Amino acid sequence: MSKTTPEYHILSLSGGKDSTALALLIKEKYPEIHEQIEYVFFDTECELEETYDYLNKLEVFLEKPIKRIKPEKSFDYLYSMYKFLPSIRFRWCTIYMKTETFKKYMDSKIKSGCSKIHLYIGIRADEPERIENYQSKNLESEDGILNTRYLLAEEGFFEKDVYNLLETTGIGYPKYYDWRSRSGCYFCFYQRKIEWIELLERHPDLFEKALRYEKNAGKNFTWCQDMSLEELKQPETVAKIKAKHQEKASKHKEERQTLFDTLAVNDVDKTCLFCHK
Ligand code: SF4
Predict the structure, then answer these.
(1) What is the pLDDT of residues 111-129, one digit of tens each?
(2) From ligand 1's centre to the CA of 225, what distance in Å?
(3) Domain that holds residue 248
(4) Cβ pair 213, 85 in contact under 8 A
(5) Ligand 1: which residues within 6 Å by Cβ?
(6) Number of structural domains the chain divides into
(7) pTM
C-alpha cells in the first residue's frame, strides 16, 4: 500500500504456517481487506534461506508484494553492544529487531495521518491462551487507534484447517518444517537440540556462525540451556541426541499419520509471540 489512508491494515508475516494461512484466508474470504492490507515481514536478516524462499513464493500466491522491513540496528551491532547472547530471560533480539521496528513503523503510519490501525494476528481457534497472552500485553492503545483482529480464530481455524488451506492452495509448508518446528532466526534459542543438529547438518556455515557468537560471548553464555554448541556438535553427543529424539518419535509413531500430527507433536514451545507462527 503506497498511499496513506485514515485506516490502515497490516499483517506481520513470520514466514511460518499460521500467518501465511491468515494471509491466504484474507485474500480468499476478505477481498476488501486484501485490497487495502499491507503484508509486512520484519526481517532480522538472520532468517533461514528457506524462509526467504517461502515469502517469495507467498508473494506470488497473494499477488501482492510483501514489504520487508529491517531493524535500525543489526544483530551484529546489538551483539557488539550487549556482548552476551539473547535468551529467554532477556530477549533483546525480539525487542530491538522486531518489536521496536514494528512500533516505529506504526508511529510513522500515525504521523502520516492514520486514525485507525487494524493489526491481523495469526492465532488459531485452538490457541485461546495465546490470544489472552496478546491481550494482556496491552497491544490495544488507549487512544483506540490500534485494533487487533484474530481472523483465523474467528473463522474457527484449527491446526488441521491451516494444514488443509496451505495444501489446497498449493503453497504447502515452508521447507524448514522438514526439520524445524518454527520460523525465526537460524540461531534462535527456542530451538531444541535436535534442531541444532539439523542446522549443523543442513546449514553447517550457519551453525558455525552461531557457535562463533557463543564463543565470543564467554563461557557463561550458551544458546542451549545446558550445553555449548562445541559440545553439542561432538559426534557422540550428536548420536545421543538423535537416539533420544528417535525414541520419543517412535512413541508417537502410531498417532503420527500425517505431517499435521508430526508438527503438532513437535510444536512444543509457543512463547515467542512476535517471531514465530
Ligand atoms: S526468532 Fe528467536 S532469536 Fe530471532 S528474534 Fe525471535 S526470539 Fe530472537
Answers:
(1) 999 999 999 999 999 998 8
(2) 15
(3) 193-266
(4) yes
(5) 44, 86, 91, 93-94, 97-98, 184-185, 188, 190, 272, 275
(6) 2
(7) 0.88
